[in-house]
TrEMBL record:
Record EC number: 3.4.21.-
Top-level taxon of origin: Archaea
Name of the protein in question: Archaeal Lon protease
GO molecular function: ATP binding; ATP-dependent peptidase activity; serine-type endopeptidase activity
Subunit structure: Homohexamer. Organized in a ring with a central cavity.
Organism classification: Archaea, Methanobacteriati, Methanobacteriota, Stenosarchaea group, Methanomicrobia
SMART domains assigned to the protein according to its UniProt record, in alphabetical order: AAA
Length: 642
């Protein structure tokens, strides 16, 4: 069993040669940033290929993946790639036969404004003519009244005429069509983001009219509003988190996709707009639906089937291999973010190295770089802002390191706060020994670790046979993993656990425990409780456990080790197969010793207090020797034991 020495050399120095390979640059200003959006996409080659194909054929696409991996960027890029089409303006006209069924007309791009302008001009002329006529009549009456001395009668007649003109003559703007969707001739295909839209914003709406009579009403065609599906006519309609749309909206969206046109009606039942329904309005858009895996479950099956039948589904990658070619792309990514921001100074080689190191760290996987580039872009911008604030010409590694401190996730900040609180109340003890208590490790959110104390207690069985009772906010996999621990207990304690109930408590699990990475800690805590051997509290551990006691890899190892170091833990046991994933910050390296392990026995040997463990270890070895003979047949039955 080895402990791991991590050097304290700044990474920029360690890596710089290998990191930049053939690339000759002083700062990111030397890197050329591609013009088109699709060429700016990093690491999602498969998605890029799908988008290119789908654009040529005008197919729909569903992109599933983690937020910030470039889904909306690809959707925008698709609108740039769509084959050039004649754009159309959409107009809505009053219908003299049925006021509640406004008419829809499409005209070539740019004509819509001209038509509405011409109608308005006409209406203005008619209004001027009418006003002139009214003035002439009024002056005539006043003149006659003055001559004939019937002034009072004259005033009454003028008022009557005025009212008659206002209420009985049709209003001139009533016949002016409304420009529902306006496009310009040279514009690219529209890109409309309808994420989180209510039914009205998505499918169009007709506004309510509080004055529905007496000449004060607004004509129904004037109250019609286009929806995102209409505004994206001949372009791209992007909907992220598609599962958040109501089933009713999804059903209507499906109809719009199938028909290529969709009438607009008032979406609120109580509004006067609900009585209005236009002729079908064209909406031939390409839909890009996006979301994480949950989105697929919440999606209307018919809508999903429509996309599958007439388009592509693509899964967004979360990491890419850490190869020279991919690192080159990452350098270009930093250059892109700097250029797109426009205000921050370029990054020098040391700053680039630091960002790439962070990309490795955030990938949570050995030999990989993260593709959650929105977050990484955030780090680039914060580092740039710090450099700019200092008036620096270039952004350096120091600025990136400072940015990492500033741009910490809320989970990370909460985790610190939790560590402080648990110290105040002695919830997490990082020194001395205790029976049945182990410092486990957990991940909060996606990038923050925390120490998770686990306590076990053994009592005589209440029922016919012993049970394992776990408390704390445990999700399904965590519950399952605890059941599996009983197989280990039989093997490692040699005791018949039918006569005992084992209680396991996860302390302070406000966020809930997912996954089975606490199973080594549970096993150690329970063995300690059953055997009455104290566990060192200055150690922490993480790892999944096979029913045979092998320690299996887990996620988030870097963040877990950092959390243990922050809490004051001196040694941490991690699965040996996770060793390559460890990319902890330099400042933690001298604070903690990392011990890779392959089997629970290695943990027990180290974590149980030496004075008390010898008898147990001798027994353990004997049990292991016994187990060698029948191991083959036993291993086939073990997985069923829980
Ligand atoms: N693959 C990528 N290549 C280059 N830049 C990227 C990539 N992914 C994300 N980015 C950067 O992150 C920003 C945000 O990404 P984007 O909005 O496309 O993510 P998303 O997957 O749509 O996330 P969400 O689902 O939360 O909307 C982009 O504008 C871009 O600057």
């Amino acid at each position: 069993m080895d402990t791991v020495k991590l050097t304290d050399e700044p990474v920029a120095d360690q890596d710089e040669e290998g990191l930049f390979g053939e690339i000759d640059l002083v700062t990111t200003a030397d890197i050329e940033v591609p013009q088109s959006l699709i060429d700016q996409v990093i690491g999602q080659e498969q998605a890029v290929e799908v988008i290119r194909k789908a654009a040529i054929q005008r197919r729909h696409v569903m992109m599933i993946g983690t937020p910030g991996t470039g889904k909306s960027m690809l959707a925008k890029a698709m609108s740039e790639l769509l084959p050039k089409e004649e754009m159309q303006d959409i107009l809505v006209y009053p219908n003299s036969d049925d006021n509640n069924n406004p008419l829809i007309r499409t005209v070539p791009s740019g004509r819509g404004k001209e038509i509405v302008g011409a109608h308005k001009m006409d209406a203005r002329k008619r209004a001027q003519w009418r006003n002139m006529l009214m003035l002439m009549i009024v002056f005539g009456i006043i003149g006659y009244a003055l001559i004939s001395g019937m002034l009072l009668m004259g005033i009454i007649a003028v008022a009557f005429i005025f009212l008659a003109f206002r209420t009985m003559m049709p209003r001139d703007d009533v016949m002016v069509p409304k420009l529902l969707v306006s496009t310009s001739k040279d514009a690219k295909a529209p890109f409309i983001d309808a994420t989180g839209s209510q039914a009205g914003a998505l499918l169009g709406d007709v506004r309510h009219d509080p004055f529905q009579s007496g000449g004060l009403e607004t004509p129904s065609h004037d109250r019609v509003e286009a929806g995102a599906i209409h505004r994206s006519h001949k372009g791209v309609l992007f909907i992220d988190e598609i599962n958040t749309l109501t089933p009713h909206s999804q059903q209507n969206l499906l109809t719009a996709l199938q028909e290529g046109e969709f009438p607009i009606t008032g979406q609120s039942e109580r509004s006067s707009g609900a009585m209005v329904r236009t002729e079908p309005v064209p909406c031939r858009f390409v839909m890009i639906a996006a979301g994480n895996l949950d989105a697929m479950q919440g999606m209307h099956p018919a809508l999903r089937s429509r996309i599958r039948g007439y388009g592509y589904e693509v899964y967004m990658k979360e990491t890419i291999d850490d190869t020279p070619k991919n690192r080159e792309k990452f350098i270009r990514f930093i250059a892109q973010e700097v250029k797109n921001d426009g205000k921050i100074p370029p990054f020098d080689r040391s700053a680039i190295s630091e960002v790439i190191r962070e990309a490795r760290r955030r990938s949570n996987r050995k030999g990989h770089l993260t593709l959650k580039l929105r977050d990484l872009g955030g780090l680039v911008r914060v580092a740039g802002d710090i450099a700019r604030g200092e008036g620096a010409e270039v952004t350096t590694a120091q600025h990136v390191i400072a940015a990492k401190e500033t741009a910490r996730s809320v989970e990370d900040q909460i985790s610190d706060e939790y560590i402080r609180r648990s110290r105040d109340y002695d919830l997490t003890i990082v020194s001395g020994t205790a029976i049945g208590k182990v410092n486990g490790l957990a991940v909060m959110g996606s990038d923050s670790g925390s120490v998770l104390p686990i306590v076990a207690e053994v009592t005589p069985a209440q029922g016919a046979s012993g049970t394992v009772i776990a408390t704390g906010l445990l999700k399904e996999i965590a519950q399952e993993s605890i059941k599996n621990v009983s197989a280990i207990l039989k093997k490692f304690t040699g005791k018949d656990i039918r006569n005992i109930d084992i209680h396991v408590q996860f302390i302070g699990t406000y966020q809930g425990v997912e996954g089975d990475s606490a199973s080594v800690s549970v096993a150690t805590a329970v063995i300690s409780a059953i055997e009455g051997i104290p566990v060192r509290q200055d150690v922490a551990m993480t790892g999944s456990l096979s029913v045979r006691g092998d320690v299996l890899p887990i996620g988030g190892v870097t963040y877990k080790i950092e959390a243990a170091a922050k809490a004051g833990i001196k040694q941490v046991f991690i699965p040996a197969s996770n060793l390559g994933d460890v990319l902890i910050e330099n400042r933690y390296k001298s604070m903690i010793e990392i011990i890779p392990v392959s089997h629970i026995e290695e943990i027990l040997e180290r974590a149980l207090v030496p004075e008390n463990r010898e008898g147990f270890l001798v027994k353990l070895r004997k049990l292991a020797e016994h187990a060698v003979q029948p191991q083959k047949s036993q291993s086939q039955t073990e997985p069923g034991v829980a």
